[in-house]
Amino acid sequence: MRYLLPLVLIFLMVTGCASVPQHRTETPLLILVSIDGFRADYLERGVTPNLKRLAETGASGPMRPSFPSLTYPNHYTLVTGLRPDHHGVVNNTMRDDGQPGVTFRMANRAAVEDAFWWAGGKPVWVSAEEQGMHAATLFWPGSEAPNHGVRPSYWFTYNEDLPLPERVSTILGWVDLPPEQRPGFMTLYYSDVDHAGHDFGPDSPEVDAALARVDASIGALLDGLKARGLEGKVHVIIVSDHGMAKHRPETFVKLADLLPPDSADMLGGQVAGFNPKPGHEAEVEAILLRPHDHMTCWRKAKMPVRFRYGRHPRVPKINCLADVGGYIVAPSGDGWMPKPEGGSHGYDPDAVEMRAIFIASGPGIKPGVKLKLFDNVDVYSLEMALLDLKPEASDGTLRTFRPALRDRK
């Protein structure tokens, strides 16, 4: 495997160091871990003993994602405290009049690495670098692009195939750096659970196997911290971006059966967006805005208030939301359809299936605290407080975590 390189060599290949004259080393380290697609109730399946123990030593509770409950918008919310309508990453797939002909999507590496799409928010790693703390990102949406002219001191281009043991060894390698080089804030990302949920559905043995794999990897990370005498001395926050719902194929909506060809630019999915083409505005609106059995559509200015969505210029003119378990299928030449046995997210954030995981443990967190359901915009405030950094204005609040925070001495 070409990834089996010495850690020092990897650093030389992929890092960019900020020019900050003095770096802060006195604050406890914070490791932010995302398990993509980890539904809140997965924690009770009995296959994640390390996560369960971590929850017992700290605070935990279900977390409501922001709308739309998709990967890129919610990962960026978790590190900026801004809702997608405010930070501008409004969907996994989006367009902007400022870049005509460009479609932002995960597979478009040039767009993912372009600062243009991420400029609406300042993530934790940028504030850390600006305030004298090294930061490191082992995969996180937005971390591959410069932001406000700043990059993390250590960062990686996304590589889904990087083995889990190497992910852990990279984090521990950062922990082992001399204090003046060591990052105070680090991110770690796992996609296994999300992929299994999409392919086989949330109730499948494949999801349980993915949960066990990731849990074992996090156990290795915790063991590594313990071996270094850092058990209970490092803050570890475990989050997910959203949950997962089982597909209900009988609710799938085929746009080819509704809209005339070439009547609108459309982005399909659990949340579908439409910009009618000139001369087709009235026709497209009349078709989409009428009642449908398994989806609901709104003009962007009329989106439900609780979604806090619809003002950003990147939000399409008409937006449709599938019923939980449904899918809005855009026309395609190959007749693609979602896997009937699989699963999806992106639905109403209030749906119980969309609830995400949250666990926080470390010297600033009380053990055994059970938090009530809260919005994921609040996590940023906790991150900044634990790092003792000055936060940017955000949509969240630290009040959510007051019952879990130890008094500072």
Q: Give the CATH H-level superfamily of the largest domain.
A: Alkaline Phosphatase, subunit A
Q: Looking at the structure, what is the overall shape? A: globular
Q: Compute the separation of the termini in Å.
A: 48 Å
Q: Please write the CATH class name of the largest domain.
A: Alpha Beta
What CATH calls the topology of the largest domain is Alkaline Phosphatase, subunit A
Beta percentage is 15-25%
Question: How would you explain this protein's 3D organization?
Answer:
There is one protein chain. The chain is an alpha/beta fold. The chain folds into 2 domains: 7-246 and 349-404, Alkaline Phosphatase, subunit A (3-Layer(aba) Sandwich), CATH 3.40.720; 249-338, 2-Layer Sandwich (Gyrase A, domain 2), CATH 3.30.1360. 25% of the residues lie in helices and 16% in strands. It is built from 11 helices and 20 strands. An 8-stranded mixed β-sheet has the order 7-6-8-1-9-18-2-19, with helices on both faces. The longest helix has 23 residues, at 205-227. Residues 1-21 have low confidence and may be disordered.
